[in-house]
Design a protein that fits this description.
29% of the residues lie in helices and 27% in strands. Bound molecules: shikimate-3-phosphate.
Length: 435
């Protein structure tokens, strides 16, 4: 493990560009693999999670290669996935696992899924349940986790499924299974989650319908579909940009432009909440990239105030709470978050991991069953300390890196390796912005 101490930082300035969106990158590869013909992807995130998706799709017959700065995918067509010869190693990636399980579920193939220690603790019952109803069969490890073996069903049975948890991964798994299922598969979404699957499937020629009934979204696909190849431009990942937006907000003197940030309304909650806390964020050159709203964000240091975060905004910033907690630890007053049970089943239990890490760095934090209450420093640097434990969780590592920048003694993290799952050049960009 590579430990690292993130030291108090000079102001963050200049212009940086964060890598491609992780959710969109996974889906670009998967949908390209299901089309007949060649798709070209530019701006693909080359993080370990996305590379795990690529390797699994290759093992099931797709051709995926880098071509200069782009990636090309030659798909096998819906129904054409081949039986993988070896277990599919999902590494740390829940998105790869759950979405690919959806694909396998309606193909007549058997696949084994394995992952690292973090992924092997995460609940898979949430996808096993609906996919079993569609006809797939599963032999998971005790507790419904990886390693697991599954057998798809062809033809699978269409279902109407109301999501019991607000999860884009579960929604996507069921819709992806529906692509090769004769008849109409419908997911009912009481609380909106990221909609990249719906948007992007349309780009690949699939008629996805979305109906709003009694405040719930009914999202349907009628299979088996034909998918046409598509050229995709992946916008910058708002989840990665969030670390720099908070860093520039809390490090005095900062004035940083983060270019090409995806601002899909189902993803941009962190910037809205930072705005409510008093952050200075200007949206420059608002435009569309690859069917997604995008802007360059100019973020200047500002005095932040603690707030009560509306739990309804949580799905649109579900991965950004760790770094929001850092912003709260440096704000004036108290920040209260609730409704965040889902954070306990991410790459780590992010409520307990962040409570422990921030406390070790000298912040004042109370953990509740569904959130954290944080009493901010009022803009004073955190004392610092550590080493904090990252639990194989990239977002804990990067969040505590940001805390280190606004501390007196620096914050040591036990391992920076997990950062490569989603943001391989994080350290380099940090050095560049602080130079
Ligand atoms: C993702 C959905 C979210 C998010 C994850 C990516 C996706 O997970 O946390 O990082 O690409 O669909 P859940 O569906 O578990 O909320």
């Amino acid at each position: 493990m590579t430990a690292h101490r993130f030291q108090p930082s000079r102001p963050l300035t200049g212009r940086i560009r964060v890598p491609g969106d992780k959710s969109i990158s996974h889906r670009s590869l998967m949908f390209g693999a299901l089309a007949v013909g060649r798709s070209r992807i530019s701006g693909l995130l080359e993080g370990e999670d996305v590379l795990a998706t690529a390797a699994a799709l290759r093992a099931m017959g797709a051709r995926i290669e880098r071509d200069g700065d782009d990636w090309i995918v030659d798909g096998v067509g819906i129904g054409g996935l081949l039986q993988p010869e070896q277990a599919l190693d999902m590494g740390n990636s829940g998105t790869s696992t759950r979405l690919l399980m959806g694909l396998v579920a309606s193909h007549g193939i058997t696949a084994a899924f394995t992952g690292d220690a973090s992924l092997s603790k995460r609940p898979m019952g949430r996808v096993i349940d609906p996919l079993s109803t569609m006809g797939a069969s599963f032999t998971p490890s005790p507790g419904g986790t990886l390693p697991l073996m599954m057998e798809g069903m062809q033809p699978a049975v269409p279902i109407e499924y109301r999501l019991p948890v607000a999860s884009a991964q579960v929604k996507s798994a069921v819709l992806l299974a529906g692509l090769n299922t004769p008849g109409t598969t419908t997911v009912i979404e009481p609380v909106p989650t990221r909609d990249h699957t719906e948007r992007m499937l349309r780009g690949f020629g699939v008629a996805v319908t979305v109906e709003e009934i009694d405040g719930e979204k009914h999202i349907s696909v009628t299979g088996p579909v034909d998918m046409t190849p598509c050229d995709i431009v992946v916008p910058g990942d708002p989840s990665s940009a969030a670390f720099f937006a908070v860093a520039a907000s809390v490090v005095p003197g900062s004035d940083l432009v983060i270019e090409n940030v995806g601002l899909n309304p189902t993803r941009n909650g962190i910037f809205r909440v930072l705005g409510q806390m008093g952050a200075s964020i200007d949206y420059l050159d608002e435009r569309e990239v690859g069917g997604e709203p995008v802007a360059d964000l100019r973020v200047r240091h500002a005095a932040l105030k603690g707030i009560e975060v509306d739990p309804d905004i949580a799905p649109s910033m579900i991965d950004e709470f760790p770094v929001l907690f850092v912003a709260a630890a440096l704000a004036e007053g108290t920040t209260v978050t609730t409704g965040l049970e889902e954070l306990r089943v991410k790459e780590s239990d992010r409520l307990s991991a962040m409570a422990a890490a921030l406390t070790l760095a000298g912040a004042s934090v109370e953990e509740t069953p569904d959130g954290l209450t944080i009493h901010g420093s009022g803009g004073a640097l955190l004392p610092g300390g550590g080493p904090v434990t990252t639990h194989l969780d990239h977002r804990i590592a990067m969040s505590m890196a940001v805390a280190g920048l606004a501390s007196s003694a620096g914050v040591a993290v036990d391992s920076t390796e997990p950062i490569a799952t989603s943001f391989p050049n994080f350290m380099a960009l940090l050095a560049e912005a602080a130079a």
